Amino acid sequence: MSKEIILQVSGLSKAIKGIPILSDFGIEVFRGDICGIVGPNGSGKTMLLRMITTLVNPDKGEIRIFGKKLAVARKKILEQIGLMVGEPVFYDHLNAFDNISIFSKYAGVEKDNDEIDRILKLTGLLSLADTKVKYFASGDRKKLAIAMALYNNPTLVILDEPFRSLDVKSLIEIKKVIKTINQERGTTFLIATKRLGELEGFITRIALIDGGRLIAEGDVDELVGRAKTGLLIETDDNERAYKLLRESNLSIDNIIVEGSKLRVSCQKETVPFINKYLIESNVQVFVLQSDDAISSYYLTFTE
Prior knowledge:
CATH topology of the largest domain: Rossmann fold
Structural class: alpha/beta
Number of domains: 2
CATH architecture of the largest domain: 3-Layer(aba) Sandwich
Helix content: 25-40%
Largest sheet: 6 strands, mixed
Number of helices: 10
CATH superfamily of the largest domain: P-loop containing nucleotide triphosphate hydrolases
Strand content: 25-35%
């Protein structure tokens, strides 16, 4: 039996001052998915979400949500969507409970004190319910924004960079919240991020975007099956190691410098030769470990 399509984007294009932001973009998200939209800064992720939520109009293309054209049934569709796009804005002089209470009023939803307490507990904020938001750490502000997106049990939740500014503990907690709601209620999530590692072992579907174009889309298991071996390498001289590997005759599909490490995509059989080549070139290898498969797959398309 085929899965129900919750979100369908077809031929979406947008340019600003003649510069293309999205070009003929299309994706499908199915009921019950946790779908990641993954791409680097400037790839078009946020613009896509802004158009899906009617904050920006596309130049051309069509968006259907819950089987209805967004342009035709905007109000009814948005009533069933939870949203966090861009940096969250709150009434900093009010506490967390009151912020959600006011949000529910603006959203046209009947205030429910028990539901507010439940969502604060679910997102790890119940102990801060009476604390003014101006005293919140950046991670707690992000949790509050996610709590607002989850309030009133939406059918589809759209989150833009939800894990940014979260420490490791908070990131794990929020991922657990999302996964629990997804599994228990069947809520569909669309999550945009540039950090692939945040989604590994968490999402069920993925769309890879670069330069405003879709470069790959599918179930995670399917894409991981296509991935080549990925490596994270740290040396005493990453710049020299990068140059050596780029100029070598080794079978390397791609290599980029990412922070203090090199991220490499290659055939599995090439791994021992990379290590041997660097050592013989008088480069000390401190770390050589497998990379997550989604990152490896994405690297095959990007520089």
